[in-house]
Design goal:
Elements: H1 2-22, H2 27-38, H3 42-66, H4 72-91, H5 99-118, H6 125-128, H7 133-154, H8 158-168, H9 174-200, H10 205-228, H11 231-255
Helix pairs in contact: 1-2, 1-3, 1-10, 1-11, 2-3, 2-11, 3-9, 3-10, 4-7, 4-9, 5-8, 5-11, 7-8, 8-9
Length: 256
């Protein structure tokens, strides 16, 4: 029991801070931790990670929304296209080796962290508002299609891909990008978790509760800090967290 508690605490800490600070999917951290250190089947671990993502992302989205750092209108459009094209991507996923799934997510986490440290996102809300509503809507549909298909095809990397595209392609201010990303992830994670539990049955309830609880607590802490932080400080903090998590996940997967 002590081992379960420690592993779930560390996994929840990393996943929660990653979600609250940078809109990172909890699945990227929790799954490899549970598989490596608790010997849990991968399918069961992913289900627990997705379930942990639901409340953590929803709570983070609420915090970002309360601080007016959430684009709900375009977020809903992107969420629908992501969900639809994730299914399309999954349909052709058999063409890709399984080993590519984890590698894609891990390297994206690491590279995005380095990007935030070396080249911070300094877009302001004023410059965001210069883009017309029609153009933003079209961009959201196109980007949601691309993200959804790649996530379905590769099987990972959704949170990081959304953050990268929101900041680099759609020109979102960092806080608004993270807020919109976690808003979308709350729904995509819920869909994934329900699917996993419906197909594979309920996982270890103790581990599920611990992971959900710890991820939620640290996501709330991360989101509150992020919304109060200066943009430069947030870029560096998010970058450092992503680099650390990316490195740790690579190490954990190496142990696997």
């Amino acid at each position: 029991m002590i081992e379960k508690l420690i592993v779930c605490l560390i996994a929840g800490l990393g996943a929660g801070l990653g979600t609250g600070f940078a809109g990172m999917s909890a699945a990227a951290v929790i799954s490899p931790m549970l598989v490596t250190f608790l010997g849990m089947p991968a399918y069961e671990a992913v289900g627990i990670a997705l379930a942990s993502d639901v409340l953590a992302s929803a709570a983070s989205a609420y915090t970002y929304g309360k601080n007016k750092n959430l684009d709900i209108k375009n977020g809903v459009v992107m969420m629908v296209t992501v969900l639809v094209f994730t299914m399309v991507g999954s349909y052709v996923a058999s063409l890709l080796p399984n080993s590519a799934m984890g590698s894609f997510s891990m390297f994206m986490t690491l590279l995005l962290g380095i990007k935030f440290i070396v080249k911070p996102v300094m877009t302001t809300k004023e410059s965001m508002e210069r883009t017309s509503a029609k153009k933003r809507l079209i961009q959201s549909i196109i980007c949601g299609t691309v993200i959804g298909f790649i996530c379905g095809f590769v099987g990972a990397g959704g949170g990081m891909m959304m953050l990268l595209i929101l900041t680099s392609v759609l020109g979102y201010e960092l806080k608004c990008a993270v807020g919109t990303s976690v808003f979308i992830m709350a729904f995509t994670a819920f869909t994934g978790a329900v699917s996993h539990f419906a197909i594979g049955g309920l996982p270890d309830i103790t581990i599920l509760i611990l992971c959900v609880l710890f991820t939620l607590i640290f996501a709330r802490i991360g989101a509150k800090f992020a919304n109060k932080a200066d943009t430069k400080v947030l870029n560096r903090a998010a970058g450092v967290i992503l680099v650390i998590l990316g490195t740790v996940i690579l190490g954990v997967n190496y142990l696997m």
